[in-house]
Amino acid sequence: EKNVCDSLIGTLLNIKGKTKDGFKCRQDLVDMGIRQVLHPISKGNRTYLPPACYTMSTAEKRSFCECLRNIKVPQGYSSNIKSLVSVNELKLVGLKSHDCHVLMQQLLPVAIRGTLPEKVRVAISRLCFIFNAICAKVIDPKQLDALEDEVVVVLCQMEMFFPPSFFDIMVHLVVHLVREIRCCGPVYFRWMYPVERYMKVLKGYTKNRHRPEASIVERYVAEECIEFASQYIDSLKPVGVPASRHDQPIAGKGTRGYNVVTMTRHDVSQAHLYILNNTTEVLPYIEAHKKHVRDTHPKMNMMRVLQEHNKTFINWFRQTILADKSVSRRLTLLAIGPNLNVPTWKGYDINNYSFYTKSQDDKSSVQNSGVCVDADSEHFSSTSDNNPIRASMSYFGVIQEIWEVDYTAFRVPVFKCQWVNGTTGVFQDPLGFTLVDLSKVAYMEEPFIMAAQARQVFYVQDPCNSSLCVALQGRPSGMNYHNDESTLDIGQMSSFSKQLPSMNEADEVDDGHANRVDHDEGLWENIPTG
User: Fold this and answer.
1) Is 60 exceeded by the pLDDT of residue 500?
2) Which pairs count as long-range contacts for 264-267, CB under 8 Å and 24+ apart, including other chains?
3) What are the DSSP calls for 348-373, one per residue?
4) What is the pTM of this model?
5) pLDDT of res. 67
6) Strand partners of residue 149
7) Looking at CB atoms within 10 Å, which of 25, 133, 516, 524 has the fewest?
């Protein structure tokens, strides 16, 4: 990924020393007798190289760099992308292996939106989707043949636009990556990031540079002794050993900004109703109450029944549970209801994500307030529709407040969010990008979700339309082994379409699309001719 990323970005931004375009490359086209529109043109003591289809104009370079510079990613997702962008020089600097990994799989297809000709942009995006697919933690062996064919097709498509010098040995090796997966298993079992991180740890053990090996051994043995002792003394906190971010309790824990706030009864009732509707033990009572409403009001349509259910269920549930002495203590506490004094947080760790409120995000260099939840809901075609369709739908929003609803013996963490209208504010383009209009707010009467249901997303301003954002999936800090239903991983949870975009059958001849006709910002080389 690093070699391909360096070549690709270097060529698009024309970074000196990394671009695969130049006088020698164009001279190769002359020798091969192809792409006459790109052949060098001698003008005095200088040579002009006409703009190729992959040559970005200055405005496009600035749009590309500003998009990356304004990105705030979630905690633990990657390094600070802003530090890699030089807007003045219009290039990326100091890219490490993992930076290229994140760029190729997630950020590059977003940053080039609105730049380059559509055919070139789609070819690059398809290559990024391939890297995203082969690096997934879960790969279906039945899809490997189709993915291998896709690699060949995409590289052939890129050969129609990029110069022959672009396709060095590292680019050609992409053809063999799928076969390597078939022989050796998923890529993430074999990549070098854990080794590189551990090498950094070992280098940190070196305090005496005259005896580095002895320093590493001494520090390693000392740390082993501390960890060994801590296994037998539960209350002992290891000294000098950092706590792992991956050992997060499934119930979650607050991380910053603890406070106790007295909330209004209306807000607490909203959170309480959502908790009841999403608690397994309460589900039989929900169905019983809906039946009770239908029997009491036989002329009500289904939409009115649901509205009446939400309005009266809390009181009905309390009366029903308190009259039954055989129910569990948890149901009794749920029926009594929560305390109006609510513990609140500015940050919360759960589901192997670190969530922040929007106010905390604004003060931070990361973006942890984006949230998405997949919810089953009943959809009505009209107010008189008595046959609603129950379907799952993804809702996108931003966390405004983090509560721990207190039921005396236990607490339930919930997020109070500002939700985007799923009908008018969420779109999907042909490449599979999820576009969100954060200004179209809806569902004001249902702002809460349980924190255990939340999935983290982050929003990147769409270079094509400043009023929209591209929603990308956050990266969990570790696998949640406690949830048997959690089979999604970084690759599968990506906002990218699982079905790669198809080839344009009209792209049969590369000469017709080799140059840019919308700008004349070609390259100048001080190379004498003759």
Assistant:
1) no
2) 264/340, 265/340, 267/416
3) EEETTEEEE-HHHHHTSSS---EEEE
4) 0.86
5) 94
6) none
7) 524
